[in-house]
Amino acid sequence: MAYLLQQFLRGSASRYPDKVAVSARGRNLTYRELEERSNQLAHLLVGRGVRKGDRVGLFFPKCVESLVCMHGALKAGAVYVPLDPQAPAERIAYILQDCGVRVLLTTAEKRKVLDARTLHALDTCALIDSSSNGQAHGELNGGGVLPWSMLAKFPAQTAPAVTLTETDLAYILYTSGSTGRPKGVMISHQNALTFVEWCKEKFQVRADDQLSNHAPLHFDLSVFDVYNALEAGATVHLITEDIAVFPSALASFIETRGITIWYSVPSALTLLLLHGNLTAEKLHKLRIVLFAGEVFPMKYLRDLANLLPHVDLYNLYGPTETNVCTYYKVDRAQLPTQEKLPIGIACENFEVFAVNEKGEIVTRPGESGELYVRGPGVTYGYWGDVEKTKKMVVPNVFQRNFEEKMYRTGDLVQLAEDGNYNFLGRRDSMIKSRGYRIELGEIETALLSHPAVREAAAVAVPDDIIGNRIKAIVSPHAGSSLQSVELQQHCATRIPKYMIPDAIEFRESLPKTSTGKIDRVSLVQNDRNATIVAAQV
Question: How does the average pLDDT of the chain come out, rounded?
């Protein structure tokens, strides 16, 4: 077993040097090229003063250089921080500051969206595209701006000598935060390797496989696509934004690339079924379809199972803090009568259990409780947020013999007769939409930042295709002429597109409880379509 993520690339580069490792935007990199470019980048980073544990930000759309940057950072002993290329500049600036990113790998175009103050805090901005024309821009705003062409000056055959262990951090993924600010989930090499090695054994990823990468690289689903492909010596095909939004183009992509293993959120598969003109002939090379991140509506899952009788279907479950910790292989014999799909049983090298309101582990079928996770895949916690970490990564009180941590997911589950767990819902305000975890409190913070907004609440409206749509109920200040479009545009400068409310309802005032808080139950009861997962802030 490899004990560092970058060793997967080293091994496959020695076995399959001339094979395509990654493909995107009409360009390919072989394993040799990926190994050499990432070695060179690692030397560049070390030469710019990056040391073990320093954070390196990745801020650009998907491209073959994405994997160069991920591995270059790892080989330099750094912790990479993938950033949403579509996120507002304010959110990016907050993340860069929050985790103290030292070097930002970006494009000239993306660099322009960051203000001078943000850039000044960086030691280096390395431009990964050709727009710099091979010329360094010298010192600008306190940070050196380096062109990608500078990699040619650095050694390609070996990486820098950096001492790391599997307990060192590999990357930080920022997810929605209940305080209105995103939180950084710290993932060590051991955390990620626990998941990758389990996938290797469970799905038998082979060198001749063609893996799709549908998820954004700042989303934890992408960990499987990238690292299991590189571990096996397979090829990973990055699905870029211009393809992902068009189901017919996506269906053609699967066919022409000969994709054998697909992994995405269920809503992407649903859109493919509804608008991709799918046929079994087009997808004849598929052998495994994995989905995670949200509930898969049973009517669409049955359609998928009928369309692809030769394909193994798996429901994977787990928050970013554990990646995947349970799984369920779809049983076609049971599927016609199943009302809901289980999230399954624990992955190997994990233990999961439900804890009821009495603080006891649920052991009898039919009982429910909050799902807890223990094992080497559990995160250390949240970057720079000790209090949040203490709340979610807690001492394992069920293990009396030695000190150990476990993660409380916040998800309510029920133990079934067959030992599988069924997902019941959230214990807090977090929802899933299009596979993304969203804290409604963060949306409310964005709404309330508009000067014309007096009160605001966000609720989830169940949707068969994307999981949930978001509705906002807003009370503007007296005399305001605020319109929905203006408020949505305002939110777009503060939160990602997938978090912007789909609908906004204006009211003179919002109902209150006896304690003076917004009465969210009343709001939901007045909207028959909404569900009681309103933010408790």
Answer: 91
Of 151, 168, 189, the domain-final residue: 189
Taking a C-beta distance cutoff of 8 angstroms, is the pair 211, 228 a contact? Answer: yes
Clarify whether residues 28 and 144 are in a common domain.
Answer: yes
Token pair for 265: 């959120």
Nearest-5° angle of CA 387, CA 384, CA 537?
Answer: 45
Tens digit of each residue's pLDDT (9 = 90 or more) over 147-195: 999 999 999 999 999 999 999 999 999 998 767 789 999 999 999 999 9
Bridge partners of residue 211, in order along the sequence: 236, 261
- Number of folded domains that form the chain: 3
pLDDT digits (tens, 9 = 90+) for 104-154: 999 999 999 999 999 988 988 888 874 433 333 433 333 478 999 999 999
- Beta-sheet pairing, 503-506 with 183-188: unpaired
List residues bridging with 435 in a β-sheet: none
Nearest to 342 by CA among 363, 360, 327, 357: 327
Report d(CA 326, CA 199) in Å as an integer.
12
Q: Are 324 and 196 in contact (CB under 8 A)?
A: no
**Cα separation of 95 and 148, whole Å?**
24
Q: Give the type of residue at 477.
A: H
Q: How does pLDDT run across 376-413, given as a tens digit for each residue?
A: 999 999 999 999 999 999 999 999 899 999 999 999 99
Q: Environment class of residue 437 by beta-carbon count within 10 Å: exposed (0-12), middle (13-18) or buried (19+)?
A: middle
Please, are residues 78 and 52 in contact by the beta-carbon 8 Å criterion? yes
Range(s) of the domain holding residue 392: 245-426
